[in-house]
Each structure stands twice: as structure tokens, then as C-alpha cells.
Amino acid sequence: MNVLLYAIIGLGSGAVYGLLAQGIVAVYRSSGVLNFAQGAIAMAAAYLFVDLRHIVPAPIAVVAVTAGAAAFGVLFHAIVMTPMRRASTLAKVAATLGLFVTLQSAVALRYGTESKMVPGFLPSSPLHLWSGAAVGLDRLILLLIAVVVTLAAWYAYRSTQFGRLTTGVWHDPDAVGALGGSPRLVAGANWAIGSGLAGLCGCLIAPLTGLQTDTLSMLVVPAVAAAIAGGFSSFPGALAAGLAIGAAESVVGNYVSTPGWSKAVPFLGIAILFVARGRSLPVRSEAQQALPAVGRAHFGRTGVAGVVLVLLLAVHLGPASWVGPITATAMAAIVALSVVLVTGYAGQLTLAPLALSGAGALLAANASHAWGWPLVPSLLAGAVLAVPVGLAVALPALRTRGANLAAITLALGVVVNDVAFNNPRWTGGFEGLTTGPLTVLGWSVDANLHPERYADLVLALLLLVGLLMVRVRRGPLGRQLLAVRGNERAAASVGISVGAAKLVAFSLAAFIAGLYGVLTGFQTGVATFTTFDAFSSILLVSTVVLAGVGYSGGAIVAGVMASGGIVSTWLGFSGIADYLPLISGLALMLTLVVQPSGIVPETLETWRHLGAAAARRLPGAEALRNAVAAVRRGAARPHPRPQTSAAPDTGEPAARPAVPGVRAAGLRVEGLSVRFGEVRAVDGLSLAVAPGEILGLIGPNGAGKTTAIDAVTGLVPAAGRVMLGGKVLSGLPPHRRAGSGLGRSFQGIELFEDLTVGENVMVGHEGRRLGGLLLDLLRPARGRLSPAGRAAVELFGLGECSGDKPGEVSFGLRRLAGIARAVSGAPSVLLLDEPAAGLGPGEVQELITLLRRLARDGNMAIILVEHHMEMVMAVCDRVHVMNLGRTLAVGTPEEIERDPAVRAAYLGDADPDAAQEETRDETRPGTVRQ
Ligand SMILES: Nc1ncnc2c1ncn2[C@@H]1O[C@H](COP(=O)(O)OP(=O)(O)OP(=O)(O)O)[C@@H](O)[C@H]1O
């Protein structure tokens, strides 16, 4: 009974979470942006409301603040989000983080960070429940307001033109324009609603929680959790989840006295629920998100060594006052590199990097405190022990992605901070934990006594981590991470274990973050854990995004800009250090508007342009320009061009090689069925294709051809059996099916846009080597094409463009590269999804020749999904016709061409009723021979 009582008491704060979540849902529905500044807007509104109450009555203050917050939302949308509409999701999320940081810092500067009580303005007379307990009337009023607002939102977004336009504006702005709406106005109106609701919440919650910048800003965490539970689309769902969170917090808080758990339990519950609902791979229709630019480790090992050398010289030759800022810069650069690895390279937006650092530091500090470990074993322990924590944070990443992952990791960061870093039993409380001696090989490196030695140690670690990053970026791991970040489905189809790649990235990042945790936590001999909070994590990620999250150089720049680093110390001398977070927040928003990929990539681009312009003007310009072009091409190709076996120039066309390494095996599919809700996309499909045979799979639009290929390759769950040369593949994940000998191309090509054409072909066969990825970091494998990869490059004529990015080559070459990527894995069965789409007649003819060669000389079994009937009839040995997910006919091209049911269903020139009849009759003699 008491549980119910506590739950009812928690409904008041739950109502505020739910209300705040309504605003998050409104913004997300219209622009796909998860507004992490929702809590910060509420916080600023709360302070404003308290000020206004001195001047006007409370109801007028509430209306004024709500309207002001709505106007602020419109302004933010117009000034920041509208210019960024084509930027990556990460950049948009970072912009809201910039707003978060700006508001939080501005309010802290104006009002201070101490807590202040706020008198209530709603009637708070107690309503007596049972067992002598009572709940204030104000909380029930909050609940009522939340329910009314939610019902209004539910109705408006469901049943009005505004709601319909809102739903369309993110996915199809042009359609909104065609319906007479202005996409900008609709999105702006949603920002007004979202921010207005935040303003209202600020006024309502201030009397419950009091005024405190952190507490109020972090209301975004339960609100986002509620929005997640509502699937970012359901207003009632978000309110229900908000109420559940409030109730659970109240119940847990009354039974568990350990700090932090009252917030942790509901968040963890929602995170588990959400992860359980997630998918290991996105569905086909899920739009590819724009991604921030990624570097190619241009400056390589020399660049890393050069940066470290400069910093080392500055430590030893510069004034003593330089040592501290340089040490802070180098430490921040180390943890920033972990962000580059996991967010830049692997594309996983996590907002808890410092939770990993703190966890490593906490575990190492306890060991060091208990057993007197000196610094080096503590560093190793911190790095190693951070890995399991990193893997725990990675678990959501296996089933969620994008802004959802950011939200869950933010919640996890808050939980770890509240439960672990604020727990005096583990942290030594106010006094911290005394660590073992700060020595390396008997030498004291205590930062208090020998700051320059500590700087040397930090710089040595920066060198090691920097070199590791170069190796990651240039090796198979980097290619696989970039493939995963670019397109998880395509990555899985070339044999990459998407989950394992993410886990490797998170583990490595956690290792690096753990090093930073010990370095920063231990430097004075007493470990403290106050700098690993969620806000600091947000600030770190924002700074790295601002600098260039896809670039190792971005991590260095982020280090320079970090708190305590070179820039902040320099600004400190100018007396504006207090304003640094505010300046960072504003700079982040401004930079993202102008340069969404960050400072480093844009600067590199500018240098290139300047270099080229200078080369044009100098005497001997032509020679110099060629030299610059050569350098640029070289820089653009850190890897040697894939080596092809150059044929001697005999004047005759070179004989094209077959694909070596193909294991001849046929494919047999029995009773394959796929359902999407009520739609039976594939309904009991059975087919077989033998080595050396080309089977056409045709049918009208929506017949289920692509779904059938997806089901065979494991990209959608399906019933039925898939066998390759006697081996049952059903139930295996896509990368294992690829490893067993299935290769495929995609209707939408789906190359990895961050990799060159040559690297795309290379990952086509590297995917099978994931188990050895970590080993590759120790003993790097050369970026070489396999014999099958070389054959694919030659066969498809990609030698010339192998160093170009897919976006830089013609459409025809992109198509061929998509097939070559699949061929480079020497698959036994090649499944091609509309390979001729968009090709000219000459290119189609060339493709026909290539396919024949792959089948006849390469001994591959090929399934060809195609609408190009001439090609199908010319190249296929047999043709399998689908309609409405089922087999309509099977036969030779000639038989299929003559089949009246096929003509009716597919070519549309006979009695459609007859076609339906034929669809059901799969055992019809003649053309159907199964
Ligand atoms: N993720 C999905 N969710 C719901 N329905 C889907 C999904 N993917 C495909 N479908 C539906 O399954 C059916 C088969 O689609 P599929 O794309 O496989 O057909 P297709 O024969 O390849 O068509 P096309 O020739 O146009 O590419 C269609 O009705 C389609 O709308």
C-alpha cells in the first residue's frame, strides 16, 4: 500500500517530466532533432519567472515567461537550426548541446550556482490519502495541467492540418510545400511549442525543486527518457512514461537510502526497455543520416610526433607557467581522441565519455589506495577496468543509434555520476582517496613537486594514443568502423560484424578514456571524482564536435580549447576565464552554423584552396600546380592504390582474370516468408540456383524481390530455410552468411561514402577478419587487396578511380563498384539487386558480359533482380517470376516471355483475374517447375 502512496506523491514531478517531454516530442516530430537544451530552457525560464514575480502577479509571470520561451525557440530555430538543416544529425544535436552550455553558463554567471528556495504559487493545501499521508493540491494541479496539455497536443497533431504538416515536414519538406504549408514556419512553430512548454515547466517546477542551475538543466534526462518511451512520437506515451518515472523515483527514493538510486532505477528501466525494442540493424526504409566529415590521418605518425615534440619543447624551454596549461591540453586531447574514435570514426554518438574516465579512475584509485599501487600499474588498471564499463555503455549501441543512443548514454552518465562518483563510500568523500606513490620507474612524477615530469608522462601517453589512432584510421579496423558508421546494413552484407565493430570501438575508447581518468584524477596524489559529471561530458563532446570530431587533429584542437588548457589559461590572463563555458557554447553554435563539420576540416580545406591559389600565381605556376596536385592526390591516398596485376602491353586487349577463391556452391531457398505487419512481402518462396547459373528474379514493383534478397542475406527476419551448398544459413546473422559465401549488391548502391572506391572493394573481403582486428593494431596488416579483390577491380575497370571517393566518380562506376565490392569477397552466390538501374545501353551490355564471365569462368551462382527485361532475357539461364510475394512462374526466358500469367501480372496486357488465379496455382504445369 505504501508503494502506491509514494507513487502518487511522485506524480507531481512526473507530470513536469511528462510536460517537458511533450516539447521534446513536438520538436523531434517536426525536425528529427533531439533538443538536449529543453531542460536548460526550463532552467533559464525558472530564474526569469522568479525575477518577474517581484514585478507582476504569478499567473501573468507564467504567461509572460511561457511566451518568452516560445519566442526564444522560434529565434533559435531561425538563427541556428534553419541554416543547419542539411547538416549531420550529430551537428544538430551538438547545436542543442551548445545552447544547453550557453544557457547554463549565462544563468550561472548572472545568478550564481547556489540553490535557492522558491515560494509556491499554486494552492498547496494537503489532500489526505491514507495512513496519515497527504499529497499537496499543487501536485495534483500539475498533473491536471500535464493531462490537459497532452490531450490538446494529441488532438492537434492527430487531427489538424498543422499536425499533418508537422509529420511531413521532416521526412518530406517538398510535400509540405505542395500542400500549401511552409516547412520553415511549421518547424518554427514546433520549436515555439517545444520551448514554450519548457518555459511553462520552468515556472511550475521551480517551487518544487528550488533554483539550481544543474538540477534544473538536467531535468532533460527524465524528460528525454519519457520521450524515448513514447517513441519520440506519442504525446500520451511520453506523459505516461514521465509519470511512471516520477512515481518510480519517489518509490525507490523512499526504500533505498543510497544516493543516486532513486534516479538511476527508472532510467535504467527505460534504457533496458528501449534497447529491448531496438534492432541490431536499421530497417531498409530508415533514412541514411548525414554524417560529419572524417579525416584520413593525413599527417600520420610524423604529424602526431611533431605536435608532441612542439609541446615537449614548450614545457622544457618555455616559462614555468606554460607547464600546467600544456599538461591540461595534452590530457584533454587524450580523452578527446576517445571521442573521435567512438563518435567520429564509429559514428556512435555517446554523451558519457567522462563516465568511462571516472569509472576507470575510481576503480584504479580504490586499488591504489588499498594496495599502494604506484602510478604505472594504476594507469593500466584504470584503462583496463574502464573497458567493461565501456562495453556496458556499448550495449545500447548494439540496438540503437543516433540521437536515441545519445539520450541513453546521457542517462547512463548521470546514473554513473549519481550512483558511483557521488558515493562517499567509494570516493573517500570530501577528502578523496590517497593514491599510491606517483612514481614511474622510481622517479617521482608528482604534479605538485615536478610538474614538468608529469607533463612528460602525459605527452608520452598522448604520443602513444595518437599513434594508435593513426593505426586505427589507416588499418582494417578504421575501414570497418567507417563502413559501419556509413551504412550498417551494407557493412553487415560484406561480412562485417556490426556489433563486434562497435564493441571494439567502445572498448578501445574506454581504454583511452580510462587513461585520461587516472591522469587527471591522480595528479595531486589524492584522487577526486568531481570532474566526470554529465555536464562536463557534454562540454567535452561539444568541444570535440566544434573542433572536428572526425579528425585526430580535432582532438588536439579540442585539447587546446579545453578548460585549463592553453586557450582558457590565456583567456584567464585576460580576466575572462569565467566566461569560457559561455564563450564555448556560443562559439559552438556559431561555428556549427558556418562550418557544420568543425574547425579542423574547414581549415584544412581553406589551406588547400590557398595553396592552390598561390601555386597559380607564382612563377613556374604550372609545374608547381602539378606538384601541389600530386601532393594532394598523394595525401588523398594514404594507402597505396590497390595493386592490380598489370598486364604487359601487347597491343591486344588484356585477358580479364576470373575471380580466384570462389568455392562452387549452390543456393537453395525453401518456404521463405517475410511479414511486415499485415503485409506478406514474401510468401513461401522456394527457389534454387546452381554454380555457374544465372537466375533472374523478376516481378512487378512491390512483388517482394528485394525483401527476398534481404531475407536470404539475413537483413530481415524470415521464416523458411536458406541453404548454401548443404550448409543451413537460416538463423545466422548477415555477416556470418556473407562469410559463408553470400555476396550482394543493393538497389540504392549503398557504397561506403567515407572510403575510397578501392577501400570499398577492400572491405568487401576484409570483413571476415574481424576477430583479428585488435591484433592488427599491434601488427598492422598492409592495406592490400586479396586476389579476388584485385580481380574485381580489374574486371569492373575500377583501377583508375580506386583512389577516389564514391561521390567523385560517375554513376555507372558507382554501380560497378557496388558489385565489385560484393565480388571481392569471392562469394559462391552473388545476389544483385537491380544492377542495371540508371545505366546506359552500352554499360548494360558491358554488365551482361561481366555477369556471364562471373558465372561461366568464376563459377558463381547469380541471382539477378532486374526490371531491365532485355538484359534478363539475354543473360539469365532461368527466370523466376514473383507477384505479391509469391511465385508466379519459373522457366527459361523464352517460356517466361510466352507465359500469359506473367504478361498479365508483370507486363499488364492480359486479364488480371487470370493472373491472380495463376499466382495461387504454383503447381501449374509448363512454366512452373519446382
Ligand atoms: N520495412 C518495411 N516495412 C513495411 N513494409 C515493407 C518494408 N519493406 C518492404 N515492404 C513492403 O513489402 C513489399 C515488397 O517490397 P519489395 O521492396 O521487396 O518489393 P520489390 O519487388 O523489390 O519492389 P521494387 O521492384 O519496387 O524494388 C511491398 O509491399 C513493400 O511496401
UniProtKB/TrEMBL annotation:
| Xref: SMART domains | AAA
Please give the start and end residues of each transmembrane region.
Answer: 6-28, 33-50, 56-78, 90-109, 129-157, 219-248, 260-278, 299-316, 322-342, 375-395, 402-421, 453-470, 491-519, 525-547, 579-600
ABC transporter domain: residues covered:
667-909
Cell compartment(s), UniProt: Cell membrane
Any idea which UniProt keywords this protein has?
ATP-binding, Cell membrane, Membrane, Nucleotide-binding, Transmembrane, Transmembrane helix, Transport
InterPro entries membership: AAA+_ATPase (IPR003593), ABC_AA/LPS_Transport (IPR051120), ABC_transp_permease (IPR001851), ABC_transporter-like_ATP-bd (IPR003439), BCA_ABC_TP_C (IPR032823), LivM-like (IPR043428), P-loop_NTPase (IPR027417)
SUPFAM superfamilies reported for this sequence: P-loop containing nucleoside triphosphate hydrolases
GO molecular function terms listed in the Swiss-Prot or TrEMBL record: ATP binding
Domain of life per record: Bacteria
Q: Which CDD domains match?
A: ABC_Mj1267_LivG_branched, TM_PBP1_LivH_like, TM_PBP1_LivM_like
Its membrane topology, per UniProt?
Answer: Multi-pass membrane protein
Q: Name one Pfam family in it.
A: ABC_tran
Q: Which Gene3D superfamilies match?
A: P-loop containing nucleotide triphosphate hydrolases (3.40.50.300)
The protein's matches in PROSITE patterns, at most eight in alphabetical order, are given as: ABC_TRANSPORTER_2
Q: Locate the region Disordered.
A: 632-658, 907-930
* Entry-linked PANTHER family: CONSERVED COMPONENT OF ABC TRANSPORTER FOR NATURAL AMINO ACIDS, CONSERVED COMPONENT OF ABC TRANSPORTER FOR NATURAL AMINO ACIDS-RELATED
Q: What is this protein called?
A: ATP-binding cassette domain-containing protein
Question: Which taxonomic lineage does the organism of this UniProt entry have?
Answer: Bacteria, Bacillati, Actinomycetota, Actinomycetes, Streptosporangiales
